Structure formats: structure tokens, C-alpha cells
Amino acid sequence: MNLIIGQCPICEDQLQVTELHCDSCETTINGRFSLGRLHHLSPDQLEFVETFIRCEGKINRVEQELGLSYPAVRARLSAVILTMGYEVGEAIPAEPPSPADRQKILARVASGEMSALEAAELL
Known about the structure:
- This protein is mainly α.
- Helix content is 43%, strand content 9%.
- A hairpin with a 6-residue loop joins strand 1 and strand 2 (28-33).
- Helix 2 (59-66) packs across helix 3 (70-83).
- The longest helix has 14 residues, at 70-83.
- The radius of gyration is 20 Å and the shape is elongated.
């Protein structure tokens, strides 16, 4: 079975579902049905969202999995939010990192794995 695409491959406009079918009872319903906001996303954005969910929304885990900096992850997240038709709000202040997390962040800076600017944003 093929996945539903959300954008027209010709003009890139949003597609609509016009028919639903039940294999069990052979009922077919015709109409205009929305694919929902997730189908507005590009394949790359969907992959990012799946990674974000798999990482339980923890940006530091997304950073590690994708090999991106904190600002790059935030930029991709903001792009997804905008593409889905929402406004990007002010960043919600996170709880300060635990002493153990602070040490891990500082160790990443010392090893060159993270810049001082990125660490400052996390701390």
C-alpha cells in the first residue's frame, strides 16, 4: 500500500482526499476530506518530526541524533510549526539543567563537540 502524499507533485499545492473506501464492507464515500496539518510537511520535515517525537521532544537528544547544533534544531522546529499553520511563540524557559547535565554540557565544550555559545543557551 502506498503512503498518501500531501502536496501535488506538479504545482506543490495541497492535495485533498476525495474518496474513502472500506475493504471490509465495500462502502465508498465520496467528498472532500482534509489530510490534516501533518500532510503540509515535506518528507524531510516529517522525518524531523518523527525524530523529535522519538527523542521525546528533548532538543539535546535531537541534536545528538541528527548531529545538529541547538540553533539548527530550533530552526527546523520553527519551520515545521510555521508549515503546519501555527505561529512560533516565545521560547518557554526550560528548567535549569541538573548539576550532572551541566557537567556533561561543559565536557562537550571542552571536547570541542559543542560551542561555548550553544552551551550558554543550554545553561
